[in-house]
Amino acid sequence: MSKNLVPTLPGTDLYCTSPGAYTERYWAPVDLDPITLSVIGGALDATAKEMAQVLYRMSYSTLIRESEDLGAGLFDIVGREFCESDSTPMHIGSLPGYIRGINRKLAGTYQPGDVILHNDPYHGAAHSPDYGVLIPIFHEGRHVAFAAATGHLSDVGGASPGLSVDAIDVYAEGKILDSVRLERAGVRNEDLWEHVLGNVRAPSQNAGDIEAMISCCRLGVRRWEELVAKYGFDTVMSAAEAWMDHSESKLRQAISAVPDGVYQAPAGFLDDDGKNRGVPVRIATSVQVRGDEIIIDLTGSNEAVNTAINAPLEGSVLPTVNFAVRTLLLDEAITGEAVPQNDGIFRAVKLRVPVGTIYNPSFPHACSSRFPVINRIPDQVNLALAEVLPNHVTGGNSASLQALSYSGYDPATGEYWIYVEVAEGSYGGRSGKDGLDSIDNLMSNTRNTPIEEVELRLPMRSHGYGLRPEPAARGQWRGGLGTRRVWEFLAPVIVSASGDFRTDPPRGIFGGEDGRRGRIIVDHGTPNERELNSKFAGLSLPAETVLTIEVPNGAGYGDPARRDETARQNDIFDGFAPTDPETGGRGTPAPTTSPISH
Amino acid sequence: MSASSLRVGVDVGGTFTDVVLHDEHRRWWVHKLPTSTHDPAEAILAGVLAVIAKAGRQASELGALLHGTTVATNLLIERDGSKVGVVTTEGFADVLHIARKKRPLNFSSYLDVPWQSDPIARRGLREQVRERVDTRTGAVLEPLIEDDVRAAGRRLREQGVESVAVCFLASFANPEHENRARALLEQELPGVFVTTSTECTPLYREYERFNTAAVNAYVGPRTGTYLRNLTEAVAAEGIHAGVRLMSSGGGTISAEVAARQPVQLLMSGPAAGVIAGRRTGQDVGRPNVITLDVGGTSTDIGVVPGGELRYKHLLDTRICGESLMVSMLDVETIGAGGGSIASVKQAGGSSVLSVGPRSAGAYPGPACYGRGGTEPTASDAMAVLGWLRPETFAGGAMTLDLEAAQKAVATLGFADTATAAAGIVTVLVNAMASTTRILSERKGLDPRDYAIVAQGGAGPAFGCAVAEALGADSVLIPAHPGLASAFGLLGSDLRYEVQATVWQRQGEADLTKLAKTLAELENQAHASLDADQVPAELKQIERSADVRYAGQGYELRVPAPDGEVDAAWMGEVAKAFHLRHQQTYGRSFPEQEVQVVNLCVAGVGKVAAHTAPQTAGSKLDLAPALPPGATRHAEAKVETGAAPVAAAAAAQPPTTDQRTPAPATTVNATWWVDGSAVSLPTAVHNRDELEPGDLITGPALVEQMDSTVVVPPGFAGPVHPDGTLELRLSPGPHQTEGKHA
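Structure tokens for the assembled complex are given below, as produced in the milestone run.
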């Protein structure tokens, strides 16, 4: 059985999240007045938000609850998105992949009351920990839509708990469920439920989280039915189509304003694949703008690797590309307008990437630790378009995300404790303003866990949580600063990491200084000091070890000589620049200047 | 606290200052005058003295002066607070810079985050000192280096800071270092406002606690000055009752406490509105209410199930982008009001109408104010629909420029302006309904069981439509919708909240520690009430606990039982939590272990006045002061000591007494019926003329000085003895003949 059949657009080698605008309709189109259109648009938007709130406030997994690593919304029968929750950028259009995944097996067999579970990363899932729950919606006996949700579960079985950079294949990641009916026509398959919760490390948490996803989808179904009851099926469908066309035209308009051409990002490199130290993993990115369409081309990127840092195409890479384009061209802070998130956002965005690369791996490559890999795509697209979109791009971003999992055995309770920490990043300098410091970067948008909560719960003590002490990358607009966290372990600990230091630091643009790489250091400033890799699994450290984690600093934007004098003085006062800029003040290495400045 | 129950409530709005006096015989007087923007105290004093004089009383007789203020809120909104320095534990100066590291917008790289772009305390003014206590035990790990504190104080003094927040890690477990540092800083910085994080909120979660203290320092000096001046001015006039302020938590606190903790005042106005709405519901026997407080630029929506005040979840206690860890009533504010501007945008091949959040503001205001506004607003839509009438606009105090309204609405490009106007109202109403649904249904509360209390100047215009969109049970319009906040102040109790993080799992709880903490908190609460001389019989101690399943990241607040803290007590707390979790999220996990994170004690002085005016069937006198500056006695008949109206009786006024009053006039107004704008003959009533038992049937307009009640076709209901109008959608078709507008 071939497991690698994500279809390209007919007659091309391009992938796209959207099946395209409607050519045939399963409703009778009606003319809409601007009032009804506004009200139905508002209702769809509110429904997606409400669905997400149910999910994240009642869930157990910290990744759903704190990170809002979830997606929720309403879709048509082939996966066109009517609306999506504004919870995390990670799931902008991942659920259409899930829907295509289940349709290939179940289309035509759905019944009212079905609840379908799916997490197959080779058939649309974002990655195996992101379970999807999908409920078909019916109107007068006909299947007309889906309510769907996905969320990151605490554990899905597999070789190791938490992070598993070194999984050898997709089976080692965890249990894969391919389009299974948890409920058939309203009746739960108890044997399947037992199987779903069996052989995972957090069965009761998973049960709570899956129930939360079901509640969330049921709410979506209810809201949809209320809307149809009030306005009529034909009107609701017509309004949904109009809103998709609206978002599509907004994005196409923005793309049209970019001069046609092929724009190349400088080659990027990941530190390594998590196993083969010192062997960088290549990322190639070019952007082709043609009229009102945009193609992100990842041809030339590294071949798929034998660790888990490959990225599922449909559920992860396409959403990332959608995010990159939407954020650059429809940045709400620039346009002042919130364009609704729906299928229209996907239609003008195409992806080219050869089968067999890290961004289009073939089965059965492992692909669960893909975050540091995919978050480089928007940074690359940003650099590629710097020359033509100078007022939308940022200097190079931290892009990589450093996740660490700490765990240990507690003899008092006889149980393991586990804590996954997602460190923040930083943005490069921006046109007219400095880069954001110490904040989640690009596709990542999570909350931190309070230091006091960690200390109350776990045998860990903080010796500091703040901005990195080195000066910010210089520029007319400075780069943002990443953070430094210092943890002391009060008991023996097992540490795993998934991240990327960026051996190629975030790139300065228009003469701005490059950013600074990240580090993880054991017992910093002692004779035992040693640096660790950005990706590793299962490192045991004794009690009283002190671990220092530094995440990359963003790059500068524009010639530092053009920085405003007041800003310069503020930098010194607020500690973003050394008192003596000639020496760097703190013994820091001489700055390098970006190769892509003009 | 004086024994007198002569009370005054003063609400200071952007345009008007509303004053309501309530006496021991449950009579009341109102006074409305323009707000003295340069110094709000001026109008307050003038208004209070005027209302006292009109009631024929002496200033010295006043038992309480209750005040809702936006002074602190405005400082934060306008980013016009003091220059703040922070003194913090070494290694943690950037906690305020990192915040919770989440971006408010997902799809934006150019967004600004206020904690970095416009910090409350800039990075160069955040000083670090050596000290550390243990988060779990409070034991000192590193002693406070006092020379560090003095040096930090000197540097901040040189920088000219106006206030200082002391924010130490783990201080919730042991506040001694913070307290000592404050004492040292007060020596180094004489006259400077110094606050500590544990003083503002002694709970765990460093970012929220630090930020609460920083914001307290930011608004502290100027709010304090305002309150001191007001208190002195009031005392100089012979009012010895002092001033009490409405807190975000829906109770009042003394001016002295408010001056130390102005961060408690940030939601003062919306909280008073909720208290007022709760009272309106209770007075007519409807404990389940949704308060809809519509002003010119925004709408505050609160949900009160069974008369119980609900508090915001920690993740939602945010004002102007600042997360704060203080008790706030669960009120949501949206940018939709009478002044919200409508526009038409192209959507794909279609056009779409949107309304707000941009507002015409107070000046020039909506086009129909005739002050040069040209963009169409919700008020203009109401004028076009015939809901606002030139003859009676603002009680005749203002001119309604109908032509300007029509011109503005016509700019939207609809085939006819009536449809455009009806559309503006529909879109606005749906935005309100949508927010209400999130506030209620998300928490397991079904709006069908609720009455909407429509208040604020514009609330009564939209109340019925919002109720219809939600399927709410009914709509209540209080006698004075425009004075709701001032009435809310009269209906509020004194309330001092004290809290502590205890972090105890049910299975292994240290009951002695819990009992000791509770006793300490209760002593503090008693002390606060004693400071306000609350007599013992009016004192009430309320316990609650913030609880979660061990392993969850957030708590829910549940009531905790009185009595001894033992295993049974813990069991009751757990039971209450399972129930609340079930209600909030649709499920609970009774087999899972429960963790008590925080304990909270509220010391309540039960001093609220019954604000429902008593009447005995006579004509209601509901006219508030008109024109502004005049006062007027509510000539309600008095039944001294009358019990509150019995709930059941109030809920269903005797139908036999109902009669349909003759309208003051009948006009043609436009209504949205079955998807199109239809002109219908519409009865217009003067609210002053209505009597209890009068039955109002839509389509109708009920006009009063500061508001117009819009009763759409299909809605009908009686006037209650206290003047509240209760409207309901009658089942079945309610279309009457009309012609397309």
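Residues 614-655, 734-738 of chain B have pLDDT under 50 and may be disordered. Chain B touches chain A through 71 residues (CB under 8 Å). Further analysis is deferred to the final report.
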